[in-house]
Amino acid sequence: MEYTCIKTYSLHPGIGAIQIHRPDALNALSLQTMIELVDAFETYDADSAIRCIVIHGSKKAFAAGADIKEMDNADTVTMLERDQFSRWERIRQTKKPVIAAVSGFALGGGCELTMLCDMIVASDTAQFGQPEINIGVMPGAGGTQRLTRAVGKALAMEMVLTGRMISAQQAFAAGLVNRVVPVEYYLEEAFALAKDVAAKAPLAARLAKESVNKAFSTTLEGGLEFERKNFYMLFSTADQKEGMSAFVEKRKPEWQGK
Ligand code: DAK
Questions:
Q1: Are 100 and 118 in contact (CB under 8 A)?
Q2: Which CATH class is domain 202-249?
Q3: Burial class (CB in 10 A: 0-12, 13-18, 19+), 141
């Protein structure tokens, strides 16, 4: 697929990068942007050379939300027919670890997109918010659910009901982001984290990601059972043998992803 709203590139081995690129609209997530994002995520997910994905926008905006200019005249049927939700679901189903590198605005769908990722590296200029209430609606891609789980009811309720943004430091204090770094270094920091993740055994990373995410959709008992099965499953991989032998032999493991 030819991309017009995003760019994809790979500067480091094992790491697939996606840049949302609609500078005139603060990277608003238009329908076309979502179609391209799904394609980029699925392409990287299917590529065995890629072990971690980094998504970012520009210094000014990660993404200022869904494209309001595409929604202002839409009715319920149009919104249902566009079936945007299925695209968000497809992104959520990415099996490889995904890191969001966020600078500037991450609002509405932009904030929701960061929360679909597994880790968030924020620049000190990042601002997170769910301002949908200011335009007469409410979050529609997980904002009321994932934000509440990430930052707790008090702050989520305040953000969703007032539309106010929080700073990167507030987001860090609330547990929404992994770290905050000066804006000059946020991409470097995100890629350093991605390199660390990409150096691990791919199947273990995939099942570990799946297991952590399971904690958000099941009981503790169900989650522990899920975790246990994934743990046992890794004992039938070549990488488990390699990882443990390498430890015993005091050498660096070489992963096959098998
Ligand atoms: N959509 C379209 N255009 C946008 C945009 C957006 N969300 N945000 C900014 N822009 C455009 C502006 O219209 C402006 O374009 P021109 O007028 O120059 O043509 C350009 O980007 C620069 O924006 P500003 O001039 O406004 O820049 P400022 O620095 O003054 O202000 C701002 C920055 C981020 C505070 C402001 O632009 C703003 O408030 N933007 C809107 C933020 C917002 O309300 N976001 C939430 C949108 S609703 C769904 C899944 C998800 C969603 C919905 C459904 N399904 C699964 C069904 C998500 C919904 C949303 O995200």
A1: no
A2: mainly alpha
A3: buried
Residue 135 CA to ligand 1 centre (angstroms): 10
Separation of CA 67 and ligand 1 centre (Å): 6
For this structure, is 112 an active site residue? yes
Q: What is the pLDDT of residue 189?
A: 98
Which of 102, 231, 240 is closest to 171 using CA atoms?
102
> What is the per-residue pLDDT across 96-115, written as a single tens digit (0 to 9) for each?
999 999 999 999 999 999 99
| Residue among 66, 106, 171, 205 flagged as catalytic | 66
The pLDDT tens digits of the residues spanning 19-72 come to 999 999 999 999 999 999 999 999 999 999 999 999 999 999 999 999 999 999
Domain boundaries, the chain: 6-198, 202-249
Give the pLDDT score at 78.
94
Largest Cα separation within the chain, whole Å, is: 65
Q: Which CATH superfamily is domain 6-198 in?
A: 2-enoyl-CoA Hydratase; Chain A, domain 1 (3.90.226.10)
165 ligand 1 Cβ < 6 A: no
